[in-house]
Structure formats: C-alpha cells, structure tokens
Amino acid sequence: MHDETHDGPLGGGDLRARIEALGPWFHNMELGGVATAPNHFLGDYPRVKWARFADAVPADLSGKSVLDIGCNAGFYSIEMKRRGAQRVVAIDWDEAYLAQARLAAQVTGADIEFHRMSVFDIGALGERFDVVLFLGVLYHLRHPLLALDLIREHVAGDLMIFQTMQRGSQEVDAVEPDYEFWATGHFDAPGYPKMHFIEHEYSADWTNWWAPNAACSQAMLRSAGFEIVSHPEDEVYICRVSPKPIAHGGAVYPARGPQR
Questions:
Q1: Are residues 158 and 241 in contact, defined by beta-carbon separation less than 8 angstroms?
Q2: Is residue 57 part of a domain?
Q3: Are 244 and 174 in contact (CB under 8 A)?
Q4: Using an 8 Å Cβ cutoff, are 239 and 191 in contact?
C-alpha cells in the first residue's frame, strides 16, 4: 500500500479533532500546536529518547535515502526529512499508526512515502537505502533475528540505526569463539548474551515478545552482519554494514548442517 502526502495543514479545531480521532498515540508530537500524547507514561516520548542519540546520526542527509522500519506515527521519519534526506520511505504493519503518520507528515509538510508492510516483507521493496532506521521494533517480533538478517540482506546499504528495549544486565562479557559441550558456566554469567522470552504480556502489551540484554543486542547485530560503530545511548546502536560471519547461514538455513 502506497500513500503520498498531500494537501495543506488543517485548521486548529479540525486538527485537534483529527488527532483525537486517531488516538491513542504512542509518539508525542506537536502538530500545529496540538500535542498528540501529552500524558505519555515515558514523558515527551520519543523526543526525550531522540535527544540522547541525535548527535550520533549524520546532521546532513542531503541526497540520502532513508528507510524507517516500524515508523509508528512518523516522528523519526520527519526528523530525517528535517536533516535534508532526499527520500524517506516509512513502513509499518499497523494501519492505525500509518494513519497517524500520514497526518503528521501532512501537517509538517514532510514528503514521505508510506507503505503498509511488515519487516519480513522488505525484500519486496527491491532497493537498498543509505540509512535504515530500526527503532523500537525488534522486541515486538516473534522472529527477531530473522528480521535483522532480512534487513542486512535486502535493504541496508550503509548505515543502520538500531534501538530495542533491553532488560537484564548491561555487562558485556568477552565470549570465546567456541566452548566444549560440557562447559556450561558461561551461560549463567550476567554478561553472556541472553534473550528473555515474554510468553504473556509485559507492560500490558501482548506484542512485547523479547527483551535482550545488552550483550545479546550486540551479538545479534554482529551475527546479522553489522559492525557497531557507536553506542550513544543504552538501547541505541549506530551500525555499518559489514561482511557477514562466514559460518552463518543468514535468513535461510544452510543446505546442510555443520560438517564434523
């Protein structure tokens, strides 16, 4: 599904009514003087989050293409346009979020292309982007590593900005390249990569499926073929595309198992 931004900003009263009709909003933005989520439980979110890593993202994106995966109401897509991105493509599977994002783009005058699409369908876009945003999505997916593999294989051209909810230890242990079968102690170390599975709900949200610790986030990124070049905020990683580890099969299982 493709939707072009069009028409001018709405009037004050009409705009407030439209914003309320499209609620609730997860992104708090000021649109024409109206706050979309003024009572957000995380405060002025995601602006407060963005402020902690904005300096790590190129300030000038002139001539660059950007893909925003899981755009929600479009806060980050709009920020990319403000930095001069030539083209911004924003995708989300939730039509309610896309309706909010279209309105936000219309009010701010941001020329953004919207598609209703899952991260697992991104190969259908048929192109690579200079910058990929993958923010606040991983922990909502039942198959998170597959999503990273697909991003690396199909759309990541150079830079990826990644963020996920993390729980557990912030320690990151140096992990050996291999362990003998009977070696098990490292699995219990706080700094060993761990992904916590949420069977029911977390924070009253049944789409919160996974919560990696810091070591797991970093290990998954490397495993999928990304080099972490900076870590400006606890949950944010600025990555470059790197060669995929040769032993890894990527998004599809290798034809054969390990040879012994």
A1: yes
A2: yes
A3: no
A4: no
Taking alpha carbons only, the member of 115, 177, 156 closest to residue 238 is 156
Cβ within 8 Å of residue 195, ≥6 positions away: 144, 210, 211, 212, 213, 216
* pLDDT tens-digit map of 234-258: 999 999 999 877 665 555 555 555 5
- Could you list the residue range(s) of the whole structural domain that residue 80 is in? 2-241
Return the closest-CA partner of residue 221 out of 236, 233, 201: 236
**How high is the pLDDT of residue 259?**
45
Taking the C-alpha atoms of residue 94 and residue 20, their distance in angstroms, rounded to an integer, is 18
pLDDT value for 4? 43
Q: Which two tokens stand for residue 6?
A: 């069009």
For 153, which DSSP code? I
Q: Which residues contact 224 (CB under 8 A, 6 or more apart)?
A: 145, 148, 149, 151, 152, 244
Dump pLDDT digits (tens) for 191-222.
999 999 999 999 999 999 999 999 999 999 99
189 within domain boundaries:
yes
What secondary structure letter does DSSP report for 62?
A: B
Residues of the chain predicted below pLDDT 50: 1-9, 259-260
**How does strand 87-92 pair with strand 65-69?**
parallel
Q: Residue 200 is encoded by which pair of tokens?
A: 């029911």
CATH of the domain at 92: 3.40.50.150
pTM over 0.85, yes/no: yes
Structurally, the chain folds into a number of domains equal to: 1
